Amino acid sequence: MSLISKNNITGIILAGGKSSRMGEDKGMMMIDGEASAKRIARKLEVFCGKVIIASSNEQHKLLQYELVEDMYPMQGPLAGLQAALSYSSTQANLVLSCDVPMIDDDVLQSLIDAHDGSSLITWVSAEGKEMPLVGIYDKSCADYFEECLKQDERRVRVACGQLSKKVIHLEGSLALSVHNFNTPEDLKIVELCKLK
Ligand SMILES: Nc1nc2c(ncn2[C@@H]2O[C@H](COP(=O)(O)OP(=O)(O)OP(=O)(O)O)[C@@H](O)[C@H]2O)c(=O)[nH]1
What we know:
Elements: E1 9-14, E2 30-31, E3 34-35, H1 36-47, E4 50-54, E5 66-68, H2 77-87, E6 92-97, H3 105-114, E7 121-126, E8 129-138, H4 141-150, H5 156-159, E9 165-170, H6 172-177, H7 184-195
Helix pairs in contact: 2-4
Bound molecules: guanosine-5'-triphosphate (GTP).
């Protein structure tokens, strides 16, 4: 049985950054008539007692979730992770980037089932690629990430290098469901995944 219940896990959506490859804010891109970040927030709400959005973008206030601003602005996803984990009041935190709107509930359930206290981080891999921004992070990672940011290390994978990790390998439709979009072309692929 999972050690995590709804009241002891926080959902975190990383929605800051430049979205330079997309050309417009990824969190606000409409997917099935709903902003991508909002769609993800609704999915997280099924599993998490509280959902917060890590972003300094004023526009994200429209999403009507609690916003947590980066302490290290414009330093990339690691800064969003650091700020949100510092702010969170739970040890376990289910983290998603705002660009995986098709994520299947079963992926979230698998992460929760696998995160059993034997590692600080549990994240997924799909099609042979590890995805640090689809995972569960222990709150204690925040201090470590802050040290990295202070030393100008912004790469999430590198920052997590020394920390204990578990990886869940996704296959088939679950792997497809974590397709992220960075460009208008990617968005077309995400739309195709929706039809499957
Ligand atoms: N809070 C916060 N989130 C970020 C930041 N940079 C990126 N993110 C989020 O982290 C995830 C991955 O971001 P990337 O795709 O690597 O970067 P991006 O800035 O969104 O896009 P590009 O400019 O095209 O690289 C997305 O969900 C972003 O919204 C940041 O500085 N702060």
